[in-house]
Design a protein that fits this description.
alpha+beta; 3 helices; 34% strand
């Protein structure tokens, strides 16, 4: 009986040292180590692969992001360049305008009809002399009405910067000068003028500063008419 008890105690003593009973203090510091069995490694392998894949994806995105930003910047720059190119590709009216102004140089006889007079004799007539002013894009003119002391003078030209015509006129019979700006339709060709300093309306419902249109008919004839049909003038070159 004693031998059997001793053997039992001998078997239990190592277990007590490695696994002390509750409340007992062990003199051995045991560090738990993970057990890596083949089954555990097979279970953890997919998680490890996902972790590595996520890390590689993050590195790839970090490397690609600057390239994408640069590509977007180049695309935006390309779009801006295309807009500038399309704007600069719009045809300029400089040469057609120069041709019209050169044609206008000379001496012209004009006749004017006012509203209501369609087939009768002109209501007024006179002579206009047009000369070059400084260069071939600016003209000055003077005119004199027949059988009258009324005279007028002005400037007509083209501004390449704004791609528009400009016109000014002043008459001895009136104190207020006339300032016009015009756009060219080279297909006609004609120039549509509008007032830069609109005059007060003539009456209720009347437009402010009605526009006028100068139409080149040929090298020896051009017409200048009011868009509200208040008057029309026909110019013929005087040889």
């Amino acid at each position: 009986m004693t031998v059997q008890v001793a053997r039992e105690r001998a078997r239990r003593t190592p277990l007590a040292r490695e696994h002390p009973a509750d409340g007992a203090i062990s003199d051995t510091l045991t560090v738990a180590q993970p057990v890596q069995t083949r089954q555990a490694m097979r279970i953890n392998a997919p998680r490890l692969h996902r972790t590595v894949a996520l890390a590689l994806s993050a590195l790839a995105l970090a490397a690609i992001a600057p390239l994408r930003l640069a590509a977007q910047g180049n695309e935006r720059l390309g779009r801006a360049t295309d807009l500038v190119a399309s704007a600069s590709a719009e045809p300029s009216h400089l040469e057609p305008a120069r041709g019209i102004l050169q044609t206008l140089v000379g001496t012209w006889r004009f006749e004017i009809w006012f509203a209501g007079n369609y087939g009768g004799a002109p209501d007024a007539s006179g002579t206009r002399v047009v000369k070059a002013l400084f260069d071939d894009l600016r003209l000055e003119w003077t005119e004199q009405l027949d059988h009258s002391t009324i005279a007028g003078q002005g400037v007509l030209g083209f501004d390449p910067g704004s791609d528009r015509f400009f016109s000014s006129a002043v008459y001895s019979a009136g104190a207020a000068p006339e300032f016009l700006t015009g756009t060219l339709d080279a297909a006609e060709p004609l120039v549509t003028f509008s007032s830069m300093l609109p005059a007060p309306p003539a009456g209720p419902g009347q437009p402010v500063g009605p526009a006028s249109i100068m139409t080149m008919l040929d090298r020896n004839h051009f017409a200048w008419t009011a868009r509200d049909r208040a008057w029309r003038a026909m110019f013929s070159r005087q040889e």
